[in-house]
Amino acid sequence: MRIVFLGNDPWSVASLEALAASSHEVSLIATRDPRPAGRRGELRPTAVADVARRLELPLIETPTVKKDAGFAAIGSQEPDVLVVVAYGEILPAAVLELPRVAPVNVHFSLLPALRGADPVRRAILEGLPETGVTTMRMDEGMDTGPILLQASEPIRDQDDSAALGERLARLGGDLLVRTLDGLESGEISDRVQDHDRATMAPKMKPEDEWIDWTRPGEEIWRQVRALAPDPGAKTRLRDRVLKIVRAGVVEGTGEAGAIVEASKVRLAVAAGEGALALEEVIPEGRKRMSGVEFARGQRPAVGEQLG
Question: Do residues 7 and 70 share a domain?
Fold first, then answer.
């Protein structure tokens, strides 16, 4: 089948690579135009644009496909399927009606659970034992379209959002090709979502990055994992921001937010229940380091407060 692919995120790449290796024709890739990035603000293309160029596939970089050149480019391809993976733009009916067979989205959750922009982080944050990938026939709602195929994936204790997201991205690429094969052969039937069971995964906000040390250590540990490696869960020590990017729940008692151990083997902070070992941190203006290395340099005292 003739495919137009829309994606921006690094997690879009596995699906694009799987498509390029499949029997289907990728006639056009649409991705966001380059944006300023880094300290120098140099224009940087999306991960999808980089891969499209490496694979020598037709590419358009455009601020939107809802109108103007982006919309016209998609329409000119007369696609059988419009594939959307981590594109970050809600598409109107005019775009969704362009493909002959279907507009297909790869969503990183087991719909109807975790509809929205941040399903990977929210799955970790909520302590779910598993999540997965869904391919669906898109409609104008927020991840409300009929389900085509699904595949589950366990969430491991050591998973942060990068590790889990990478596995889901690879799983999504395989599931996408199976979905397109099934649509082409007529062997896949749509399944309407049970909207009464829907949960939401809104994009995490800057205020969600700050640690509330009065919460149980288990919840803070999940917050750290959900936000790692970027942007990181944040706290303050001596009026400077400290990002925590890897942690573990340990035994310990004390006032919430107080350092309960600062030894050669562990830096630990009391939570509302239990304590959290700060295994890897990023001090303000510095590089990632172990909690023990940070403690060795800063010499925090037992009882000193974070928050």
Answer: yes
pTM: 0.95
Q: Which helix (H) or strand (E) holds 285?
A: none
User: Is residue 254 in some structural domain?
Assistant: yes
- DSSP three-state, residue 212: coil
CA 263 vs CA 236, 239, 248, 296: distances in Å: 20, 22, 16, 8
Q: What angle do CA 272, 163, 56 make, to 5 degrees?
A: 150
**CATH classification at residue 242:** 3.10.25.10
From the CA atom positions of the chain, what is the Rg in Å? Answer: 22
Residue 97, domain extent:
2-197
- SS3 call for 307: coil
CA distance 275 to 252: 5
Q: Give the span between the Cα atoms of 196 and 200, in whole angstroms.
A: 12
- Which tokens is 196 given? 């009464």
Ramachandran category for residue 41: left, alpha or beta (phi over 0 → left; psi -120 to 50 → alpha)? left
pLDDT for 37: 82
Residue 104: closest CA among 194, 24, 50: 24
Token pair for residue 171? 């799983």
DSSP H helices, the chain, are: 13-20, 47-54, 68-76, 93-96, 119-125, 161-185, 217-227, 291-298
Same domain, residue pair 131 and 226: no
Residue 127 has a pLDDT of 98
What is the rounded CA–CA span in Å between residue 204 and residue 101?
34
Task: Round to whole Å and give the CA distance between 286 and 75.
Answer: 48
| Count of domains observed in the chain | 2
Return the pLDDT at 38: 78
Give which of 64, 93, 80, 138 is closest to 72, Cα–Cα.
Answer: 64
Positions in the chain short of pLDDT 70 = none
Tokens of residue 78, six digits: 């007369």
Beta partners for residue 236, in sequence order? 241
